[in-house]
Design goal:
553 residues; mainly alpha; two-stranded antiparallel ribbon; globular
Length: 553
């Protein structure tokens, strides 16, 4: 039958009766097209998405990425800003502060693989919609928390849920752009990440000085830091509602064999970008990558080889779904993907451990620095890093042992704490403007290699910081270079792995990175109680060690 079909298509295209008979009897084709002219041959995804153009739709995507990226960053970062001001309300120890910084990452680690599997089997859009809406519920729950245990629980659940949409967002955005714009879009997302980090201290600056302290429903004590958390939950809610209006990724639809739906999405993108009718979209058919659907009358069939009858779609059991998922993951455990993925995972672990440990403890360190300088304004004492760490440890201990006297007044956070964090975040934001030029000059691999080396040296340099200006400068450089290196690694992951595994690989890579962030934030308060040297040795060692391994590959 396959040979007859090929003859009918290639030698007798004008005979309608023979063509109709051939179509009605064929359900085994691998490529479907409406016509047989050379101009209308099936297109692969890159050709199809490039033909849809770059315009208004892509701009809408980048605008939507702003609240979505803010939601991702807020979920893992907000705790670091409330620690100095919520210390008395929640009776926090240094270990408690480390747990609050780390608990969101713990939830992300637990949910990494399930979210990746759902994104690759159920679709990108459904994960983005439900993920962000459920995340907003958890953030609003944390805003109403009355004690440490309640806050940890909601932050863990928030991390558990936000991990899905945060990883899928990268895949969704890259799959909505052609090869020419893909890397630039990821860099723009990196700038949005930096902008979100910059927005947080600004929100804290506006919120924390306010005298908001009241009782809600007769039993819920609400303070200014809880209003801050409530505001930080709005991006999640907005993102979930907007994503309801967005289409599914055409790349995902093609991978599932749903070419008719993928073509409709591409036509809609073309219409929005160009302002022309959908029918003017130059691509009329797509290469069929997944199991074939039933042929439609009037279609010409290109059959490459005889294949067994496609099974009818039926509702699969949980065990069958798990078996299918494991089969899909099988290439991950064989060359060349195995060694490539392991390198990505270890690099992500090291970079997140070093970068996010310092980044999440900077608000606490800057708050202690501001308080120390205020107390020693007359004697002009030097605010070295070791002095600030000792002061922070002693002050937290005093709050626990002498709670009534230490917390008799409402905490008054110095303006310098906000300004210092804004400076660090602003440096990270503007650093991304130079990232594209640096990548073109040095290459992505060199940028990643040098980034690991530079961040390792800067981490060691923080130990020798002798004043607040030097601490701010080193911290700004550390966060900026580390952030660019992380973005370049994620861009490599998206481009190196096939579509069916892409979300899963990104999810596992992010899981490893968050395991590093979890480890670093739990170890940091323990190490600073041991001494000044150990925490900086930890963050520098992992970066320099990974630099040495990566540079020898």
């Amino acid at each position: 039958m396959a040979e007859e079909n090929i003859k009918n298509v290639n030698r007798d295209k004008g005979k309608d009766s023979e063509l109709d008979d051939d179509i009605e009897g064929n359900t085994k084709s691998t490529v479907v097209t409406r016509t047989c002219s050379p101009e209308d041959e099936p297109a692969d995804f890159d050709t199809a998405i490039t033909s849809a153009g770059f315009g208004r739709f892509n701009l809408i995507l980048l605008i939507i990425a702003i609240p979505a990226t803010c939601a991702n960053m807020f979920e893992s970062t907000t705790m670091s800003y409330i620690l100095p001001i919520a210390e008395c309300h929640l009776h926090l120890t240094l270990t408690d502060k480390g747990i609050l910084n780390a608990c969101a990452y713990a939830g992300m680690i637990v949910s990494a693989i399930p979210w990746g599997y759902l994104a690759d089997t159920k679709g990108r859009r459904i994960v983005l919609v439900y993920g962000y809406l459920l995340t907003s519920v958890c953030v609003f729950g944390s805003a109403l928390s009355q004690n440490f245990a309640m806050l940890v629980t909601f932050k863990f659940l928030g991390g558990l849920i936000v991990n899905g949409p945060s990883a899928v967002l990268y895949s969704y955005l890259s799959e909505m752009h052609g090869p020419k714009y893909r890397s630039h879009v990821l860099l723009i997302v990196g700038m949005i990440v930096s902008a979100a980090i910059l927005l947080l201290p600004m929100l804290a600056w506006v919120t924390f000085p306010q005298p908001w302290d009241f009782v809600l429903f007769g039993s819920l004590n609400i303070h200014n830091w809880q209003i801050f958390l409530l505001i930080c939950g709005l991006p999640s809610l907005i993102s979930g509602l907007i994503m309801c209006l967005m289409p599914e990724s055409p790349r995902y639809l093609m991978g599932q064999g749903r070419n008719a739906e993928a073509l409709l999405v591409l036509q809609k993108i073309y219409q929005i970008n160009t302002g022309q009718p959908k029918d003017n979209y130059p691509v009329k058919a797509l290469v069929l990558e997944g199991p074939n659907r039933a042929s439609q009358k009037g279609e010409a069939i290109y059959t490459v080889e005889e294949k067994p009858e496609a099974p009818k779609i039926s509702q699969r059991s949980l065990l069958e779904s798990l078996r299918a998922g494991m089969q899909q993951m099988k290439p991950m455990f064989h060359k060349p993907l195995l060694s490539l993925s392991l390198r990505c995972y270890t690099m992500q672990f090291c970079m997140f451990l070093g970068m996010n440990t310092i980044r999440l403890w900077l608000p606490q360190l800057f708050s202690s620095m501001a308080d120390y300088q205020k107390e020693h304004a007359e004697d002009n004492a030097s605010a070295t890093m070791c002095t600030i760490l000792d002061y922070s440890v002693n002050r937290t201990a005093e709050t626990l042992t002498n709670y009534h006297s230490a917390c008799a007044e409402t905490p008054n956070i110095s303006i310098n704490m906000y300004l210092n964090n804004i400076i660090v975040a602003a440096c990270g934001f503007f650093g991304y403007f130079f990232a594209a030029a640096i990548i073109r000059l040095a290459g992505a691999k060199r940028l990643l290699t040098y980034g690991l080396f530079i961040t390792g040296i800067l981490g060691i340099g923080l130990y020798w910081s002798v004043n607040s200006v030097m601490t701010i400068a080193l911290s700004s450089a550390y966060v900026t270079v580390g952030g660019i290196a992380v973005s370049s690694l994620l861009g490599a992951v998206v481009s190196l792995f096939p579509t069916q595994l892409r979300s899963l690989v990104v999810a596992i890579a992010m899981m490893c990175g968050r395991l590093g962030a979890l480890s670093g934030n739990l170890l940091f308060p323990i190490l600073i109680q041991i001494g000044c040297v150990p925490p900086f040795v930890m963050v520098a060692f992992v970066m320099l060690c990974k630099f040495y391994i990566h540079s020898r590959k």
